[in-house]
Specification:
Belongs to the class-III pyridoxal-phosphate-dependent aminotransferase family. This protein is of the alpha/beta class and about 450 residues long. Helices cover about 40% and strands about 15% of the residues. Helix 1 runs parallel beside helix 15 (about 410-425) and helix 6 (about 145-160) crosses helix 11.
Length: about 450
């Protein structure tokens, strides 16, 4: 392979002509080997825009979507019969693996006995108690996604504080809700996507991750209701906090009267109580989703006594019509349903155990050490992320400290080649904004299989 050194960052990259050639070669093989997926996609376009039931399915992978048939443990199979080791796990919503027996049994039993009542079940009590112990927050509520959980945390913080501004960090992802779908562009906070009004952006502030001086400037007007943060950024690869960052953030939010929420949607895979427990972090609220449902849609959020008070004693809304449920704007018809809570209980008690987390963390170390060894053997200076069971790498000799650095170090075209190459050789690689993750269904053999494929990939391109 010819290595060139571009001006940006002085980082060696694959020669553009060879990169284009290899990508075209892999894409041609990818499409040719999946005729049933291609045919079904064409059929689907008649009644689903883009041929998919949700737009992300065409946007996230950098190639045409495939149609899944079934999954088993750490692997899934498409309708053309290709089997894949799943390193993406549906953006961690399937981190427990496909078809964990305890969850399958609990869901089947709950379906037979009724899946939804708009009434609490004993499983809800059990799950709330378990989450309270793990995340050290006394009160819990349930939604259908982490997006819903974060939306309700924001509303409760606004009510309790009497303020309207929200502080977030560049590179975040806190769900598909208006309040968090904002970005920094040209020095201003703007809507992230079409279809959003500027109004929500006007109530948001954004600062770089790991920049406590910027945090203090944003909080000084004392109009910020909530600061919401991922303990480590996970939507631009992995960006770890500087030593003392979270302690400083807690101190500043407390000083300026701002509530602090941890979005552990992705980082909950680090320990039974996420990074909050592992790093002994303090917060007024925690948002969860994905993994704790064992593959069934769920969201959950934990609250301090102060933030839970409006739910314990709902405030009245003078002039509200009789059909209004009153109180702070929370809830939904399917929120806290019996099926989701049965799955959550089974996942927490049988899969997401302390022993399970210790095992996936050890496998994550095996993965990270293996990647580092492969890069060194290939004379590449790429650096490896380490976040217990989640790994990944940066195409540079240093790890980023914030989202801007992560974007500058990214090589999307090279990562697209990697995904296609891996898919053609039985690995469903993580999306470019994430990083390969060990699931609870994996063992040493799966990690070794992935590392073998990465070794072969490097040999092929080099």
């Amino acid at each position: 392979m010819s290595l060139t050194t571009p001006a940006r960052g002085g980082r060696p990259v694959l020669d553009p002509a060879r990169l284009a050639f290899l990508t075209a070669q892999e894409e041609q093989r990818f499409l040719a080997d999946r005729p049933r997926s291609r045919a079904l996609l064409e059929r689907a376009r008649a009644h689903m825009p883009g041929g998919v039931p949700m737009g992300w399915m065409t946007a996230m992978h950098g190639h045409a979507p495939i149609f899944a048939a079934e999954g088993d443990g750490a692997w899934f199979t498409d309708i053309d019969g290709h089997r894949y080791l799943d390193m993406n796990q549906a953006d961690l919503s399937m981190n427990v693996g496909f078809g964990p027996p305890a969850v399958v049994a609990a869901v089947a039993d709950r379906m037979r006995r009724g899946s939804q009542f708009m009434l609490p079940t004993e499983d809800a009590v059990w799950c709330a108690e378990a989450l309270a112990e793990r995340w050290d927050l006394p009160y819990w509520q349930f939604t259908l996604s982490a997006s819903g959980a974060n939306a309700e945390i924001i509303r409760l913080a606004r009510h309790a504080s009497g303020r309207d501004k929200i502080l977030m960090f560049d590179g975040k992802y806190h769900g598909h809700i208006e309040d968090s779908l904002v970005i920094m562009a040209d020095g201003k906070v703007k809507p992230e996507l079409h279809g959003l009004t500027p109004d929500h952006a006007a109530h948001a502030r954004m600062v770089p991750f790991n920049d406590l001086n910027a945090v203090e400037r944003a909080l000084k007007p004392r109009d910020v209701a909530l600061c919401i943060v991922e303990p480590a950024l996970t939507n631009v690869g992995v960006v770890l906090p500087d030593e003392g960052f979270h302690a400083g953030l807690r101190e500043l939010t407390g000083h300026y009267g701002t509530f602090l929420a941890l979005d552990e949607t992705h980082t909950q895979i680090a320990s039974p109580g996420g990074l909050k427990q592992l790093w002994q972090l303090e917060a007024d609220a925690v948002g969860l989703g994905k993994t704790i449902g064992g593959g069934v849609p769920i969201g959950a959020y934990g609250l301090s006594e102060v933030l839970a008070q409006p739910l314990k004693t709902p405030p009245s809304m003078p002039g509200a019509p009789m059909e209004s449920v009153g109180g702070v704007a929370t809830g939904g018809t399917l929120y806290g349903n019996a099926l989701s809570l049965a799955a959550c209980r089974a996942a927490l008690s049988q899969v997401l155990t302390p022993q399970g987390f210790a095992r996936t963390a050890a496998l994550g170390t095996q993965l990270a050490d293996g990647l580092a060894g492969l890069f060194a053997a290939a004379s590449l200076d790429w650096q490896v992320h380490r976040l217990t069971s989640r790994s990944g790498f940066t195409f540079a000799d240093h790890l980023p400290r914030n989202a801007a650095e992560a974007r500058a170090l990214a090589q999307p075209a090279l990562y697209r080649l990697l995904r296609l190459w891996m898919a053609n050789r039985e690995v469903w690689e993580s999306v470019a904004t994430a990083g390969p993750t060990v699931s609870f269904a994996m063992a040493e053999a799966e990690v070794a299989f992935y590392l073998e494929r990465m070794r072969d990939f490097l040999a092929d391109i080099l």
